Amino acid sequence: MQLSVRTVRKYSYIVYPSEVVVYDDCGNAVVKCPTEQEAKEYIRNLESEAKDDDI
Question: DSSP alpha helices (H): ranges in 1-55?
Fold first, then answer.
């Protein structure tokens, strides 16, 4: 019997004057990026990795 546990995480980001910080759904800082575009790409990559893990 194989069990599959699916973890659904939501990420958000806050733009500060010097950096953009990506947070997980618990409010923990995940990564600091120099631009908003990089933060969006990081979140997109995390979400696509999670989908790949479900397969």
Answer: 36-54
